[in-house]
Amino acid sequence: MTEQEAYALTPLALAYAGDAVFELYVRTRLIQSGMRVPQRLHAKAVSIVRAKAQADRLHAVHGMLTDREQDIVRRGRNAKSGSMPKSATMADYRASTGLEALFGYLHLSGQTERLDTVMAMIVEEI
């Protein structure tokens, strides 16, 4: 898919793909780090992919994103979804949706090197 085709998708469609991309990236990095116990893997993954953690990391790296990436995040953050997890505030949930939209955009448009760079900034603690 071209960058333009990916950009033309709805922010929630980008976030839908980005959620899966982020989850897989985090799980892969955890296993590569040497974790092997399923309960610990799950607990650590949840602590990284939950909305509050994503929102915090987005705020920390926002200034390192390109203008286009910031636009994707803004579109995702402003998208109205029909549901929200009980464990997140509306602001955190929207910020995490913006971040997931960015992951989806980078993945679907084939920008793997940039996706790896952004992911590394987001999950630096693994």
Give a quick summary of the entry.
The protein has 126 residues and is mainly α. Helices cover 74% and strands 0% of the residues. It is globular.
Oligomeric state of this protein: single chain
What gyration radius follows from the Cα positions, in whole Å? 14 Å
Low-confidence stretches: none
What portion of residues is helical?
over 70%
The average pLDDT score comes to 93
Order of helices and strands: HHHHHHH
Helix/strand-derived category reads mainly alpha
Number of domains: 1
Main sheet attributes: strand count, strand direction, barrel closure: none
Global geometry: globular
* Name of the CATH superfamily: Ribonuclease III domain
Name of the CATH first level: Mainly Alpha
Strand-residue fraction?
A: under 5%
The DSSP helix count reads 7
Terminal-residue CA separation: 30 Å
Description:
The chain is mostly helical and 126 residues long. The model has no long low-confidence stretch (mean pLDDT 93). 74% of the residues lie in helices and 0% in strands. The protein has one domain: Ribonuclease III domain (Ribonuclease iii, N-terminal Endonuclease Domain, Chain A, Orthogonal Bundle), CATH 1.10.1520.10. The chain is built from 7 helices and no strands.
